[in-house]
Amino acid sequence: YFARKANHKGSYSLVDALKSKV
Amino acid sequence: PKTFTVRIVTMDAEMEFNCEMKWKGKDLFDLVCRTLGLRETWFFGLQYTIKDTVAWLKMDKKVLDHDVSKEEPVTFHFLAKFYPENAEEELVQEITQHLFFLQVKKQILDEKIYCPPEASVLLASYAVQAKYGDYDPSVHKRGFLAQEELLPKRVINLYQMTQEMWEERITSWYAEHRGRARDEAEMEYLKIAQDLEMYGVNYFAIRNKKGTELLLGVDALGLHIYDPENRLTPKISFPWNEIRNISYSDKEFTIKPLDKKIDVFKFNSSKLRVNKLILQLCIGNHDLFMRRRKADSLEVQQMKAQAREEKARKQMER
User: Fold this and answer.
1) ipTM for the assembly
2) Residue B252: enclosing H or E segment and its boundaries?
3) CB-based contact (8 Å) between B132 and chain A?
4) Is the Cβ of B253 closer than 8 Å to some Cβ of chain A?
5) Which residue is closest to B256 within chain A, CA to CA?
6) Helices in B239-297 by DSSP H: which ranges?
7) Cβ atoms of B48 and B27 closer than 8 Å
């Protein structure tokens, strides 16, 4: 159930991506 | 090991490989890149179509675990998935430039990218220079372009001009490009094409919360919302550096701007699958957007140095 639920959602934080690259 | 046959279609070739059952997307993708001699791999992907929706092979997922037709040969199109902001600065190797040139030219001729008549003729003249080399009236006699597809049909139909008249128009520009090598002519082509509004934009049909039909565009610079009647000028734009977060849940997609004073934008796309693709394109484009704003990696620095040497050597030869 969790896997299927997760499969219906997705998220991307541009702010976090930027921080992790610096 | 057990294998199956894959067919890879590039813009100018078709290849077949034996792909091991256990291979992930990356194994196949790397093999294709090695075979092509392509090092600027980050712009490209292996595309397949499922139920009329475009999808891209995931690098970390087994090839056979994708929702592809299992009938052999399993076919993928090797295509540019992401576009540079500036072709001349970012596309280093000749093979990379060439693949982009072929892909963009096809999009323009197929009218996937709107191109005004004058620009179409100029682009055609660069495409001719790239293919035929310098203009020589004793070789390039009347009718030499008769079999070539050079202009979008829309442009041809706009004017009462014969094939000969078009050829004359294109040739008068073509003659001006004397001295341009193939790679230079192709780069000139890309420099003009990249200024066309629809260049490099992935469009998706969406509906806002009121049910109004709109288009979402994803490109190198950010996300854009269009009126379906006008794919050229967005009504709203969200540049990558002004977005905090993007997410989807089923068919709903949310764009959260960095500035809390600006409203969150929510919309629905036609399918969950489409939202997955939109998110993938956002992540990839944003990653390249960040990379461009940092110093080149050692690999890219080395590639650029090599390309400069190669160019100088060719110029000497000429």
Assistant:
1) 0.88
2) strand B252-257
3) no
4) no
5) A13
6) 272-292
7) no
Which residues of chain A make contact with B258, given a CB cutoff of 8 A?
Answer: 15
User: A10 and B247 in contact by Cβ < 8 A?
Assistant: yes
* Closest-approach residue (CA) in chain A for B278: A10
Tokens of A2: 């969790």
Residues B285, B280: Cα–Cα separation, whole Å = 9
- φ, ψ of residue B139 in degrees (nearest 5): -100, -45
From the list B244, B249, B272, which residue is nearest A14 (CB)?
B244
Comparing C-alpha atoms, which of B236, B254, B237 is closest to residue B245?
B254
When CB atoms are compared, the residue of A8, A14, A21 closest to B249 is: A8
pLDDT in tens, chain B (318 residues): 899 999 999 999 999 999 999 999 999 999 999 999 999 999 999 999 988 889 999 999 999 999 998 899 999 999 999 999 999 999 999 999 999 999 999 999 999 999 999 999 999 999 999 999 999 999 999 999 999 999 999 999 999 999 999 999 999 999 999 999 999 999 999 999 999 999 999 999 999 999 999 999 999 999 999 999 999 999 999 999 999 999 999 999 999 999 999 999 999 999 999 999 999 999 999 999 999 999 999 999 999 999 999 989 988 887
Give whole-number Cα distances, B127 to B109, B122, B170, B272, B303, in Å.
12, 9, 10, 40, 26
As a whole number of Å, the end-to-end CA separation of chain B is 49
Pure H helices in B56-203 = 87-90, 94-109, 117-132, 153-158, 163-174, 182-193
